[in-house]
Every structure is written in structure tokens, then in C-alpha cells.
Amino acid sequence: MMELFGMAFFRNAFLMCFLLGILFGTLSFFVVMRGLSFMGAGIAHTAFAGVALGLLLDINPFYTSLVFCVLSALVIGRIVRMGRISYDVSIGIFFSFSMALGALFIALRKDYTFDLMGYLFGNILGVTDFDRTLVVIALLVFLPFVILFLHRILFASFDEEVAAVSGVPIAILENTMLIFLAAIIVVSIKIVGIILVSALIVLPASFGLLLSRDFRLVLAAGISYTVLIMLGGLVLSYNLDTPTGATMVTGGTLVYFAALGASRFFARSS
Hints:
- With 270 residues, this protein is mostly helical.
- It is built from 11 helices and no strands.
- The chain is globular and about 55 Å long.
């Protein structure tokens, strides 16, 4: 085990597990509380069109996917607030539209040599200084926002109508959360993958809610759970020579269902 830390790429991946564990463990709580779990999956797949657009235009896919995902999240939020269609319907439409659009962009750029599979499934062992800087910036911006507006977000999550009457800026908070959700997904898709990032949005808070209804404990449990499954998946994938992102999510899902089974067993026993 210790010989792995002699390799720079493994040390970088190890550090990234801690940073992303804190980021997704925190984000997951607010996404689940606001009922935006499916939104995370939708935006993650919307990023596919942004990446493909970057390939077509010879632009860094990070920038095109960031703009595409943020705009998509805001448009979906606006459409839902207008009361025309629900979140699940709008996300389903954008999900299929963005995947189809991404396929068209790739078809138009037939001579591309870009590692598209890396964006689909991630490569935490190939973390660059640019990737690490982006994650640190996301943490430094997102965590202060959470600390400053924690009670307002919780108030809006539990009773949106009363919160609005009490002066909580619901639309601004929701748009800000959607922007953070889109940005954090884009920051991490190269590391854990478009297909797998949605699990890290839903699983941490879901695990924490099995243990407690106190939001402090749910946050702490979610962060601890995310860090542990990422570190465990990293080590296990290296030893088994399996895809790292897939190993993390598979292990995390198994741990979640084991905790779910245990919680139901103890509930029946008591």
C-alpha cells in the first residue's frame, strides 16, 4: 500500500478523493433536500453535448460544457417556474436533446482524436494541475456560500411557500444552486465521468439520511461516506485493474444498500 504513495499520480488521485468527497458530500445534501436529484443526472448527460461542441470548435471542452450546462440548468429552472412543465419532464427533454446534439457534433467532427471515453467514464489517475485547481476553486466558492445561506436554503427546502412569504429570495437561491450544481458537475466529469457523476450527487445524502434526520449529522455522514468510497474505490481499482470511477460507484452503491438493509433490520428489531 505505501509504495503507491511513491507515485505522483496516485498521490494526486488520493488528494482529489478528499477534495471531491467534501464537495459532493456537501452538494448532495442540498440537491436531495431540494428534490433536484434527477436534475443532477440530467445536467451530467447534458455535458456530453458541451464536450462534443468543444471538439467541433477546437475549444477546451471544459469551457463549452460549463457554458452549455449552466445555461441548460437555468433554462430548465425558468421553464419549471413558469409552471408549464415539471422538472422531470423538462430534464427528460433536455437529456435526450443534449445527447442527440452531442452525437451530431461528433459526427460533424469525424477526424477527432480526443479521449471522449475519458469524459464518459472519468480518469482520476490522470488528474492534472488544471483539474486540481478547478476543484479547489469550486470548494472555496461553494462552501462559503453554503455557510452564509445554510438556514435560508434549509427553510426553502422544507417549506418553500412560507419561506417566500418570509422574504427568502427563492428564485435567486434556486438559480444559484443550479449554477453550482452545473459547475461542480462540469469540474468533476473529467475525473469521475459524465455517466458516473450523478451517483455522487445522490448517494451521499441518501446514505446520511439512513443514519439521522439531523442535517448536521447527514452532512457529516455524507462527506465521510463519499471520501471513504472514493478512497476505497481508488485502492480497489488499482489492485483489481478495473475502471476507477465505476469501481467507486459500484462499491458506494453496495455500501448504501447494505446500510439500508441494516437500518431496516434494526428498525424491525426495535
